[in-house]
Write a structure and sequence with these properties.
Blueprint: H1 2-6, H2 12-55, H3 61-123, H4 131-146
């Protein structure tokens, strides 16, 4: 009743309205506080879930990231070794190709020389009346060519 003494000009109905409005205001504030508490608990729960997602020692994102970094380093090292091996193989292949090309050129040159020798032998008339004389003449031509 102390508040009524401070404001004696207010009627009973006005006091009831003021009291009701203050009660509604307190009810609204209390409801907002309860809602904030529920939201706070929900956020705290979600925060714990996210922290576990990141920091779990077995399946956490930090563990996965560290594992992926280690895997990447392993793959990069393997790739570097493979690239070095391929470079070595490329150099070896180039050397063998050059050697094979030189051997092919020499073989082609020998083939052309042999073809010229065969052409000379084919253009030379064979002498002799009998088959034995002709074989002896061809044999002599071949022996001359070989010397």
């Amino acid at each position: 009743m102390g508040v009524r003494l401070m404001f004696p000009s207010l009627s009973a109905i006005k006091w009831q309205i003021i009291t009701g409005a203050a009660g509604l205001a307190l009810l609204g504030v209390g409801g907002a506080w309860v809602a904030a508490q529920f939201e706070n608990r929900s956020l705290a729960k979600r925060n714990g879930e996210l922290t576990d997602l990141v920091d779990n020692p077995k399946t956490g994102l930090r563990v996965v990231l560290a594992s992926e970094r280690a895997n990447r380093a392993t793959v990069e090292a393997g790739l570097e070794r493979q690239n070095a091996a391929l470079s070595g193989q490329a150099a070896d292949t180039a050397a063998r190709l050059a050697s094979t090309s030189a051997a092919l050129a020499a073989a082609q040159q020998r083939t052309r020389a042999a073809e010229k020798q065969v052409a000379v032998l084919m253009a030379t008339p064979i002498k002799g009346n009998t088959a034995a004389e002709r074989f002896a003449d061809v044999d002599a031509l071949i022996l001359e060519d070989l010397q």
